[in-house]
Amino acid sequence: MNKKQKVYTALFFTPLVVGIAVVIVAWSAGGTQAAPAVEPRGIIIDYGITSLAPGQTARLNVVNIGNPNDIRARFTVEFDIYGTAPPEPDVPPCDGSAVFCMNNLRLLRRETAEVRLRPGEATSFTFTPRNGETFMAPCIRTGPETRLAPTLEIREAARTIFVPPIGFYGVDPSNPN
Fold this sequence. Notes:
By secondary structure, the chain is mostly beta strands. It is built from 1 helix and 10 strands. The mean pLDDT is 77.
């Protein structure tokens, strides 16, 4: 056998041997099984903490922009309400005497509402702070198939003075839907 014939023989038999080995390994591995079903997770839309000055209110508007043939969307709206806690001893007070100061916040309460909207329907929630409630954190928790368009308005008297950008979208670990 000359050199050229050895090369052709090696080129023919090497893939053949590798192919047979792959078939044997795959055959001996047994049957395949379907992957376990993954539970869809809920979605959370979070605006973070927003401060309100005296006389200001926050309004959260939500529109269901889902398919008109879909059933009602079900979601939860939450307002976490915070008040200022006593300052730490080594932190400058927020009385205007220091360039930097820190507000410690304490969760005072959580207001929640369960909502069902048909596609095209909308709702709004207005938060008016009581005495000592200066910070709030609105949040929407929903299922994975729900398509909502929320906006948050900061209002003073009867007019909107600020509309922050859309909130953070993420997976809601507490909602298995």
